[in-house]
Amino acid sequence: MPTSSIRPIGARRYKTHSFAAYDTLVDTLTATGTMTTGQVQDLVTTALGLTANLWQISHPTPTLARLYAQEPRWGHAALDFEPHLTRLLQATATGLTARAASLQDSSRT
Q1: Crossing angle (nearest 10°) for helices 37-58 and 8-32
Q2: Which of 25, 66, 77, 78 keeps 20 to 30 A from 59, CA to CA?
Q3: pLDDT tens, position by position, 5-26
Q4: For 84-100, how does the pLDDT look when each residue is reduced to its tens digit (9 = 90+)?
């Protein structure tokens, strides 16, 4: 639902619940993993953006699906959602933790 269509009281309730869910997710991932709170927040932000984009791409409209069938070289656009999202999030998490380790190492010298 677009947030522009939420009335002021509904907007407060929506944001209260969405931020509570976000905080719970970040707290749980931070407590059970090796990433810092900031790293987890960056990973969750990346996950939200990638999920929205990749879901659209991997679930083409019937018109696009027909077009991809007619033009197989364009079919790569209708990618397999879960493996792509997993690979990109793993790469992001690896990059976030490697960057932190690199910064830590450089501060010691």
Answers
A1: 110
A2: 25
A3: 656 778 889 999 999 999 999 9
A4: 999 999 999 999 999 87
